[in-house]
Amino acid sequence: MYRDARIAVIVPAFNEERAIANAIATIPAIVDHIVVIDDASADDTGARASAVGDARVEVVRHPENRGVGAALVTGYRRALELGAEIVAVMAGDGQMDPADLPALLDPICDGVADYVKGNRFLHPDVWSAMPRARIVGNVVLSAATRLTSGYKHVFDSQCGYTAASRAALEAIDLGGLFPRYGYPNDLLSRLHAAALRVVDVRVRPVYGPHWHSGINFSTAFHPIPWVLLRSWGTRIATETRARWRRAAAE
């Protein structure tokens, strides 16, 4: 536990047999449950995760590849079933610094946030560690997501290092979350529509030997603009209905 809160970490993983064992081994002792979601890997990702021998680890396997957003939904639902009060996300490739985890948990424990996301651009190493193409793409998507999500203060929208309170996860429609790349942009809009508090915290950008990106031209520039438009429309419609209900109640 951490500060009297039961903590779960969900680890979405697809073809991460080289990195998954080390990624799990670095998850700190403050975490009560580790849920690895093997998104129909073609390698031994699931077996190697199970072989770590950590009693906190549970591996859930998708019979077919459903995408990282869908893997997170599976993990979130299982973490809630396990009684987690805060659910964090750490990638299966080990590219998230476990030393940053308390910084993600603290705002929720302090009662000042419902959802906390990492912002690598707050760290001075971002300009040397993050590939240039990623910097450019991230800046563009972050600017667009500020507009569509309604959160003007957040940045680094594509950072997957996050923590969510149980209340936040129960307040949104997890089943409606976009299932593949683009899920962070969609999720932020849903959080805003539910009037939930989101804060950024500094996290270290990590691009180690096992880093690889599943994002390419087709995954980034085909679905994400559509996801942004859809999430913007959904947020506006939801918030408009809420205003109408408040007005009718008055």
Please provide a written account of the structure:
It is a single chain. By secondary structure, the chain is of the alpha/beta class. It has one domain (7-249): Spore Coat Polysaccharide Biosynthesis Protein SpsA, Chain A, CATH 3.90.550. The protein contains ten helices and seven strands. It has helices at residues 20-25, 45-50, 68-81, 101-109, 126-129, 132-149, 166-171, 183-193, 217-221, 223-249, and strands at 7-13, 33-38, 57-61, 86-89, 115-119, 162-165, 198-202. Strands 3-2-1-4-6-5-7 form a seven-stranded mixed sheet, sandwiched between helices. Strand 1 (7-13), helix 1 and strand 2 (33-38) form a beta-alpha-beta unit. Helix 6 (132-149) runs parallel beside helix 10 and helix 8 runs parallel beside helix 10. It is globular and about 60 Å long. The termini are far apart. The model has no long low-confidence stretch (mean pLDDT 90).
What is the 3D form? globular
Judging by the overall fold, what is the CATH architecture?
Alpha-Beta Complex
Q: Please give the oligomerization state of what you see.
A: single chain
DSSP helix fraction? 40-55%
What are the salient characteristics of this protein?
42% helix, 14% strand, 10 helices, globular, alpha/beta, single chain, seven-stranded mixed sheet, 250 residues, Spore Coat Polysaccharide Biosynthesis Protein SpsA, Chain A
